[in-house]
Amino acid sequence: MPELPEVETVMRGLAARLEGERIARVAVNRADLRWPLPPGLGQALVGRRIIGFARRAKYILMRVEGGRTLLWHLGMSGRVTLTAPGEMPPAAAHEHVVIETERGWRVGFVDPRRFGSLDLMETAAEASHPRLAALGPEPLDEAFTPAMLSAALKGRRTSIKAALMDQGTVAGLGNIYVCEALFRAGISPKRSAQTVAGARAGRLVPAIKETLAEAIAAGGSSLRDYRQATGELGYFQHAWKVYGRAGEPCERCPGPPACGRIRVEVQGARSTFYCPRTQR
What we know:
Radius of gyration: 20 Å
Mean pLDDT: 91
Shape: elongated
Low-confidence stretches: 224-228
Structural class: alpha+beta
Largest sheet: 4 strands, antiparallel
Order of helices and strands: HEHEEEEEEEHHHHEE
Helix content: 10-25%
């Protein structure tokens, strides 16, 4: 599933090209994705100017005139295609919603497995939307600090990996970036969450922020269906330290014969990659 860096990259691509554009046409090619699409979606958007974009966790928010917001979630296989005026759109099966602007920009929402979703809400009520209301802090915000994380983990006996994957603890983190951040911080994914406080939280929060910032700069990690809205691939997968590298040497371990190797185990039905020597 696309995680925070991938969603942020798509959001930025849309914002750079569509802010200020007026919507001329909306084609809704099916009635539902993961959930039913809001009735009257096209009528609610046509004729309105796109004011701006934002991201909350793994959701994209497209705000339009009249105080409405279109909420996008890519799900497992969803992606957004963006075609410039005068260009031919890519052939795309499973294109369920198309938005065109007066100047000719074309946005397609493609989702073969239909685990993604779109919803329409009042902009003033974004924070109370059922998909957003229970989300934790944004990890890239200045307000997300070691003290905040320590407080959120207090008394929690689950693993730190599971706690970070909980969107109520911190918003937008997923399997890839949790594995990578824990490696950078030198913290075992199996460590009890309540013990990640003080100095450990002081290492983990900067590791999360640095991992996400580097991934966004690289355009995210391209796996399976994910591409940027412009069709480009992301490149952060080439910088992974542990994810997808089971059996390979750990770059932080001393050389042979003490060299450790990346291990993979299953936690909560997800593969966890880590170095048992350097992560404690």
